[in-house]
Structures are given as structure tokens and as C-alpha cells.
Sequence to fold (210 residues):
Amino acid sequence: MPIVLTSIQRRLDRLQIDEFADVSSRNSPEMLFQLMGFGRDRSMFDPGRWSHGAASFGPSLRLLGEAIGLPLDSVESTGEVAVATRDIEIAAGTIAAGTVAAQRMTVAGMRRGEEFISFSANWYCSTEIDADWDLREGGWRVTVAGDCSLDIDIRLAIPLERMAETTPGYTANRAVNAVPVVCEARPGVRTTIDLPQVIANLGGGSQVAS
Fold:
């Protein structure tokens, strides 16, 4: 999507992707409490999580910069957490008042000393936190600043109680749809830029409105 949105620009000043995920319905105590650090005292939250963000999302930002002919000079990652203002019950357990209930990680692709392409992950168990964050419903916001500026919201059009059962589709379907073009590609490491456009084969048993 960023490649499509930047294709209508003649001048690109900045591209920002914000992700929003309400994980309160995810019944995965180990993932939320142990791996992600929700429910911990703020002082016990591991800031090393932010460096993992640069390793996880940095390559995608670099690839995008190279694809549009504006390579990044570096990738930096920062983050912050917010705590619950009261005890909150979620599917995985209890978030006690004063413990981490939301976290925001920003991975910034730098060019000429300024943020040029950035990704912010806003993951939260509740909006009742001690910070004034704009926590939206699950989905993404893509902001393009340039000579044809854009502000686009993409929302997951499913109720929160069905999020756990539907999330695997949002995560895996594109990868599954990419299997044919990956199999047909030449041997070696291939990126989204190298491969043909991934198109879903919706005729293989799916019910599609005519």
C-alpha cells in the first residue's frame, strides 16, 4: 500500500504508518504478560523490546525507501508505556491499576537527520490509561505528506469479541496467496519488490459476490 500511495507523489516529505491493536480479547497470558510485558510495573518493563522493533520492522522500511529511490540512512527505535488507571479484566487475566496497559513503539527510518518513513505500533489492553494517546479501533492509519498529501484509515470491520478468531486471516492470508508467485520465482532471496503482484485466487471455493 505505501508503494501505491507514493506512486501519485512527485515530492515525498514523509510517510507515517500507525497500527492500532486492542489485545484485551486475546486469551494468551504468556504472550501478553510475559513476552509483551503487560501487567508489569512500569519500572520493570524491559526497554529492550524497542530494539527488537528495529530488527523486526526496520528491513521493511529500508526496502520501501530503496523501492522509491530514497534509501534510508539509518533506522531508530523508541517506545513508551502507559499504565491502567484502575483494575481491568481482560481475556488473559487482570491488569492491575498502576501497571502497564498500553505500549507504543515507533520505528523510524531516518534520512538526512530527520524521520522520513516511520511505523508506530500502538498495542493496548484498555484506553483507561494515564496518557493522552489517540488509541483508535483496530487497524491502521497511513499518512503521506507530499505534494499530494493523503490521510487514510483502514479499520478491521469485525467486532472485538471475534478478533482472536479472525486475526490469523489478517496475518496469514497474504502469505498464503503469495505461494504461487514464490514457487515460480527464481531461486534466492526475493522481496515484495522483486515478485509479481500478489493476487488472491478467490475462485477456489470461496463465495464471492458477482
User: Anything to note?
Assistant: Residues 48-67 form the longest helix (20 residues).
